[in-house]
């Protein structure tokens, strides 16, 4: 099984971080994987995206141009990538920031008010992790296991105090 | 019979290719004498420039590296960082050090690289046949300033010692000349100090040697030395411009 | 088996270089290779190594020249515009027969170009780059694992043949993370009696130099160097062959283009089109033999590149114009997606022009 995930949003929304978390989870689970960020000035406040591929086979191109799973954290990202999702794929929409509905009818859509939920738990920067929790629940290629181990890898040593709140954000998304 | 004069050990037996009356030979000798005096020949590595001294690697008996034009301070940085207990020096002309290699010079100085730089300033590109140098004097006639260096279009000469001495980092910056016996004797002392500084781990030491180029200046060797005294030295005053040890003072 | 870690390609190069005994790094900031310098800046002071941010790429490569003269393993890294600036120094390093590693994490050009991935420095890397007759050994990683493995190999080959080696990567290879098993510790095993280390009064002075004013001498050094190059071309060409056994359509691609091409090969075969891939791992020496052999079996070659078509010339020279060679390319920082390659091959299969 191969799952191609595209995470897109504004710079600062933790798009790359969420991707890294999924990548580390894949590493722990012994999967083949790749993580590829967009880079350059666009990282500074513009749109940022990252391609994550998790697979039982060796990964070919690390560039996700036709995602199985699209995580859209803002409207420009949904506008840009909605049509690229493979038929039968999944789109996760941050419904706090994106008011419109997905036009496609051949994909599964999940509207998650992740920005609102993150704000409610006093962690406004963790909408990405709320969303990732929901992805883990719904997406067959991404298990709900090894959360703590992956978090420990992806949260830098000097920010280990943030482990718990990240864990909570993931749980919040997973519980939806 | 007592030996009263001999070739420094740090020079090879190779015959110098320099023009008659050129003072590179004197400066080579002073560098070699400093190496001999400190007894460091076996652990010295020199870096030759592009310019008249390009074949200095044939004349110094220590290990030598030939650098690209202007890059000697960068090459010396690499060597010194690789072998910190070796004595590393560069030998560069004015075009090499103050034109194409100015960035390398300034940055090696501001890093206070523990190297010794011998900077030979004769106000002209010698090897290529007498073009205007960054240190050519205002009004000086050269192949590429045939009507005299016009400061309005060609700019003013660069006084390297004055400029580098503005930096916080370098240990020692001095200007000497070799146009008469008194100046040669002083130059010997100053060059030896620039090497001793390195041995003592003090840092970047540069000695500018005001030199002559009878061939490209179109003067006899003797007239060229007079030109050094009457034209060059007034524009490039001799003395110690920076000495963190506080030993030297501007003459 | 050693543990797999998740690393960016740029970081994998840095760690692999340190493990290969390279304790001297000189660089100048440029996107998209910055992580490499940052990694070195962090690690080198802790292991007694040297990290120095030079005043320019020109200075950095000349510092590399200085360390290489002393016989120690040394490297620099940059991206396209910066590598152009290093060409003078690279020519001198080649002319003085010194081993060193230069990493080019390519971006789009010419000029300031862009910062997105590219392979348009192929000519510069494989045909010389600087002035004079010389080559670099040029290795082209196609995964983060190869970023690490080929770094170690590059140091070994550079030492063995006394010449500079280049790792020719691109922005994607530098920026992407993949699991990687880092190579073990190694170091130079080749004797370097030519190095300048101080005579200690025990030998005649060593001179590291590329100046030969007597044409007979300079010609001799050139001929001797090219005898070495001929041996390398015969013995060090590396490549991967993918689904080539019965292939009619031979894609040729390296680096990120090869990764995308593999997807295309699989998809084309699912459609009944027998495609295969030859992936050069060294582009100098270029793997001429497998391409020449394939020319006897396949219908066409398709050179897949992130450039306006540079490697295609080596493909043509290798297959000696026996079969048509088409170009499937994107440029300026764009990467062909598998669909574009598939469409290109399908069009050729139907007899259309590309």
The CATH topology of chain B comes to Rossmann fold
SS-derived structural category of chain A:
alpha/beta
> Cα distance, first to last residue of chain A?
25 Å
Number of helices of chain A: 6
Order of helices and strands of chain B: HEHEHEHHEEEHHEHEHHE
**Major pleated sheet of chain A:** 6 strands, mixed
CATH architecture of chain B: 3-Layer(aba) Sandwich
What proportion of the residues of chain A form beta strands (DSSP E)?
A: 15-25%
Q: What's the CATH class of chain A, please?
A: Alpha Beta
The coarse overall form of chain A would be globular
Strand order of the largest sheet of chain B: 2-1-3-4-8-7-9
Radius of gyration of chain A over all CA atoms, rounded: 15 Å
CATH H-level superfamily title of chain A: Pyruvate-ferredoxin oxidoreductase, PFOR, domain III
Q: How many structurally independent domains of chain A?
A: 1
Which structural class do the helices and strands of chain B define?
Answer: alpha/beta
For the record, give the distance between the C-alpha atoms at the N and C termini of chain B, rounded to a whole number: 40 Å
Give the topology.
The complex is a heterotrimer of chains A (176), B (251) and C (354).
Chain A: E1 2-10, H1 15-28, E2 32-37, E3 47-55, E4 69-72, H2 75-81, E5 90-94, E6 108-112, H3 114-120, H4 127-138, H5 147-154, H6 163-175
Helix pairs in contact in A: 1-5, 3-4, 4-6, 5-6
Chain B: H1 24-38, E1 44-48, H2 56-59, E2 63-66, H3 72-82, E3 87-93, H4 94-100, H5 102-110, E4 116-121, E5 124-125, E6 131-132, H6 151-154, H7 160-164, E7 172-177, H8 181-199, E8 205-210, H9 214-217, H10 221-235, E9 239-243
Parallel strand pairs in B: 1-2, 1-3, 3-4, 4-8, 7-8
Antiparallel strand pairs in B: 5-6, 7-9
Helix pairs in contact in B: 1-8, 4-5
Chain C: E1 4-8, H1 9-19, E2 24-27, H2 34-43, E3 50-53, H3 57-69, E4 75-78, H4 80-95, E5 100-106, H5 122-126, E6 137-139, H6 144-161, E7 164-170, H7 171-175, E8 177-181, E9 207-208, H8 215-235, E10 239-242, E11 249-252, H9 255-270, E12 275-280, E13 282-284, H10 288-295, E14 300-305, H11 311-319, E15 325-329, H12 338-349
Parallel strand pairs in C: 2-3, 2-4, 4-5, 5-7, 6-7, 11-12, 11-14, 14-15
Antiparallel strand pairs in C: 1-8, 6-13, 10-12
Helix pairs in contact in C: 1-2, 1-6, 3-4, 9-12, 10-11
Short description:
The complex is a heterotrimer of chains A (176), B (251) and C (354). By secondary structure, chain A is an alpha/beta fold. Chain A has a single domain, classed as Pyruvate-ferredoxin Oxidoreductase, domain 3.
